[in-house]
Amino acid sequence: MKPSNYPLVSIVIPVYNGADYVSQAIDSALAQTYPNIEVIVVNDGSNDNGATDAVIKGYGDKVIYLSKPNGGVSSALNLAISHMSGDYFSWLSHDDMYYPTKIEDQVNILKTLNNSKCIILSNSVQIDKNSNVIHRKKYDGFFNKDRFISSQEALKAILKRGSFSGCAFLIPRMVFDEVGLFDERLRYTQDVMMWYKIFIAGYGLYITSKVGVMSRVHEKQLTQTGRKLYYENCAVMAEELIPVFLDISTDEFNYLYYYALHNAKYNNHSIIEKCLSYKKFSPNHVATIKAMQLYGSIRPSIRRMYHLIFNRLRTQ
Fold this sequence. Notes:
With 316 residues, the chain is α/β, with parallel strands linked by helices. It has helices at 22-30, 51-57, 73-83, 102-113, 151-161, 174-179, 190-200, 227-248, 255-265, 269-277, 283-315; strands at residues 9-15, 37-44, 64-68, 88-91, 97-98, 118-127, 133-135, 147-149, 169-172, 204-216.
């Protein structure tokens, strides 16, 4: 039995056809220096001839193994949340890995804060399919300093930056009792919607510069192939978020403007037009949105060119 000053942390690993990488994720979870964890692995209907199932079953009672028909990451996370015993929730994608002290570092921060309305975000690095680090900082400057920011500042940050690594968070279980579970309609942006809901509900964010997560980038993952799904999910999110941003915007900070600007960056035309239709923006704001939309239309070509040049330089 663990001492009471080590609250139980549930590490949740949803997996679909992940036999190539899931063992690395599970191993990194089991290798945590924090002494009181449970590891829940949810097989979301893998159809790889039992390969993923065999890998997970190889861990025996070291993990809690749940299996379900395919329903997307949100449904897998929600199933795990309904079964978890922990006081805290930590998501780990099946192709990512934790550094050994990720959970210990985050729990220690929560103990010093003594703030129940707070979630923790660690820094992260990106790795390739062979686990080589390819980007040391995902958000230039954002993680340079350990600090607490209010729910309003956290909401501004996600509006300006787009998202954070879902696996880099540590979230109190009670958060889901207040804001609800992951939206199962969303198969691409379920994490972003959850962060919006958490910050809108008044939870602050503690940012730590210490790297806790290795986020893998490879050709099989949904984030590399899901452009159409992204736009469909954004439309669903907008129906819920636009009324909220209209309600909470002030003269000091127009949340709707930054939401429109974010969607302009990705050339999300229908959402931009809906935001503009409320006529809540100054002429300068409208001009900036239109300029960002122009950039958004050519951004994919710029990114393709960048990666082409970058990959050539790496191989020289």
